[in-house]
Structure formats: C-alpha cells, structure tokens
Design brief:
The structure holds two protein chains of two kinds. Chain A is built from three helices and no strands. Helices cover about 75% and strands about 0% of the residues of chain A. Chain A has one domain. Chain A is mostly helical. The longest helix of chain A is centred in the C-terminal third of the chain and has 41 residues. By secondary structure, chain B is mainly α. Chain B has a single domain, classed as Ferritin (Up-down Bundle). Chain B is about 75% helix and about 0% strand. Chain B contains six helices and no strands. The chains are: A mainly alpha, B mainly alpha. Chains A and B meet through helix 1 and helix 2 of A and helix 4, helix 5 and helix 6 of B.
Chain lengths: ~100, ~260
C-alpha cells in the first residue's frame, strides 16, 4: 500500500532533522577535539607530580583521538541521511517508486 | 572533603613560597649569629674557649641540616603551579565532556522506527545505538580525567600546606635559637635552643619526606586510573571510535527495484 503523501513528508522531515542532529553532534565533538589542544601539560608544568605525567598525556591524546574520530563518524551519518533524504524525495517526485511497482 | 579550588591551592602554595623565601635567609642568619656568639666566647677567656669550640661544632651541624632542608625545599618548589593548573584543567575537561553530552543530546531522538522501515533503516538504527554508547563513553572518559586531576590538585594542596607548616615550625625554632645565641656569653645554656633549631630542621626534613610519600601514593593511583580509562573503555572497541559505516545503509535509490528505505504505508 502506498504511503499517504503527508506521511512521506513527515518521514522526510524526520530524516532531515535527524541528519542535522548528527551534523551538529559532529561539530560539538570537533569543538571538544580543539579544546583538548589547550589541555596538554609539559613535563615541567607537572612539577612534583611526575609519576602520572606520561599517562595523563597519553590519556588526553587518547580522548582527543576519539573525539576526532567521533566527529568524523557523526558527520558521515549526517551526510548519509541527507543523501538518503534527497534521493528518496527526488525519486518520489519522479514517480520511480510507483513505476518500479513498490507501492 | 571539599574539592580544591583555585583559591585554596593558591593559599597553600603561597604559604609555602613565603616560608621557603624566609628559609632561604636561614644560612646567613644562623652563620651570623654563631659568628658573633663565638667571637663573644673567645673574648671570655679559657671557659669561653670551651664554649666556642662547642659552638663551632653546632654551627657546622646547623649549616649541614639547613642545607639539606633547603635542597629539599628547592626540589618540591619545582613546578609549584601544578595544583593550580590541575584545578583549571579539571574544569576544562568538564567542558570537553559537555561537548560529548551535547552531541549525545543532538542524536537523542535519532530513532527512525515508525518513520522509516526496510533493511537499511534497521541497520542505521543498530549503528545509531553503537554511536550513542561511544558518546556516553567519551563523556565518561573526560569525567575520569577531571576527577584524577582534582585528586592530584587536592594532594598537592595538602602537600604544600604540610611543607609550609613544617618550615614555619623550623623558622620559629631558628628565631628562638638565634636570640639565645646572641646572649650565650652571659648564659652558655642558651646553646640548647640552637640544638632545638637543628633538630627542628631534621624533623621538618623527615615530615616533608613522609608527605612526599603520601603524595606519591596519590600519583600512582592517578596514573593507574588514567591508564585504565584509556584501555578498552565501553563504546570504543579496539580503542577506536566505531565506524558509522554509512555504505551499509546509504542506498536509498529504488532504481534497481529494491527499496532499502521505505515509508510505512
């Protein structure tokens, strides 16, 4: 059964909104990645706290790597959903779903 | 115990620096006092000669112990701003974690069930759940770093407060010792106060070394916690952010006659 036109519109709108959410999420992680740049300590700055210095440095770098990767992956999801929305909308407009007997 | 703040750690390190600066004057003051006392004794004849010899020995002992104390204070004064920076950076890590939470909230309503169906839509929903878990882990990781930096700051605050107190105790004894040394010609038993000053330096060294050990324990715990936080936390399989794999669900075209994405009829 063919979906009602208003259902298609709301589904496409949902896809747009969700895709945008992933894109803005990506921006937040990118910001976090940038912020970590300013949270590196030199060994001298750690003063008498030399024992955890290398682990702090390593874990801060680990967190930064995850934020960077996460930003990329979230953006990829956002882009994918945007492309899906555009493709579906275009093919619906062109009547491809009906022509292919999918309704 | 309340978390350390920029104000409380600054108070601790300032107290330490003030007392450390005063302690740096100790060798000169002690040397000056002994020199005067010895000169006074030598002017007092045979009896004074015996006291003067005794004072020379005390002078050497005092110089040795004060030198050790100052060396220790110089070592612990290295990077004294560290606790202050830890408090500042801990707050910054909370803000970084806030970015992960914001990202989590941005995708919180990203469930597409009810709007979309088909194999690709199902795959997307599975990936979505993995990504949500990773976002939670990113926040947790920042929280762990924040907590450990505060633990280090707290330990540093306690440490510098302890050292400041120990140095203050030594300075007090030293001042009393110098005052008595300057009257030693009239009252040779005043030398006992200089002995107190020497033993006070030794006590300060011992207590500072105990404080160093306590601080080292906190450092070891922090190192282990930080190491563990970056070792396969939930949501980062293989210590990496999971791939979103859009190619597994991005096929929306129906030109081939199949619909991986469809709107419920």
């Amino acid at each position: 059964m063919a979906p009602q036109p208003d259902v298609i519109v709301s589904s496409l709108e949902k896809l747009r909104t969700v895709g945008h959410g992933w894109e803005t999420g990506s921006v937040h992680l990118h910001k976090g990645d940038d912020m970590i740049n300013d949270l590196k300590f030199s060994r001298i700055q750690f003063g008498i706290f030399q024992i955890p210095w290398d682990r702090y440095t390593g874990t801060a770098g680990y967190a930064q790597d995850r934020f960077r990767e996460g930003s990329t992956e979230l953006a990829n999801i956002g882009k994918a959903l945007a492309a899906i929305e555009q493709t579906y909308e275009q093919e619906e407009r062109d009547g491809v779903h009906r022509m292919k007997g999918l309704y | 115990m309340a978390d350390p703040t920029e104000k409380t750690v600054t108070e601790a390190t300032t107290n330490f620096t003030t007392n450390h600066d005063q302690a740096k004057q100790a060798p000169h003051k002690i040397d000056d006092a002994f020199t005067k006392a010895i000169a006074g004794c030598l002017a007092g004849g045979i009896a004074g000669l015996v006291v003067a010899n005794n004072l020379r020995n005390k002078k050497r002992d005092a110089a040795d112990e004060i030198k050790k104390l100052l060396k220790l204070l110089t070592e612990v004064a290295e990077g004294i701003n560290a606790p202050y920076l830890f408090v500042q950076y801990a707050a910054s890590w909370q803000r970084v974690g806030g970015e992960a939470r914001a990202a989590y909230n941005d995708q919180f309503q990203s469930e597409l069930s009810g709007y979309w169906q088909g194999p690709a839509a199902l795959k997307y929903n599975a990936i979505r759940q993995q990504q949500a878990k990773s976002l939670e882990s990113a926040d947790k990781l920042c929280d762990t770093i924040h907590t450990q930096l505060l633990a280090l700051a707290s330990s540093g605050q306690d440490f510098y407060n302890t050292v400041a107190k120990e140095v203050a105790g030594f300075l007090s004894k030293m001042t009393a010792g110098i005052a008595k040394l300057l009257t030693i010609v009239e009252a040779p038993w005043g030398a006992s106060d200089t002995i107190d000053a020497i033993s006070s330096a030794i006590t300060a060294i011992t207590n500072i070394q105990v404080a160093v050990k306590d601080n080292v324990k906190t450092q070891i715990i922090a190192r282990n916690e930080l190491e563990n936080a970056a070792n396969q936390p939930y949501g980062f399989p293989g210590n990496a952010w999971p791939k979103a794999s859009p190619n597994e669900y991005s096929d929306a075209t129906v030109q081939d006659g199949t619909n991986s994405w469809s709107v419920p009829g």
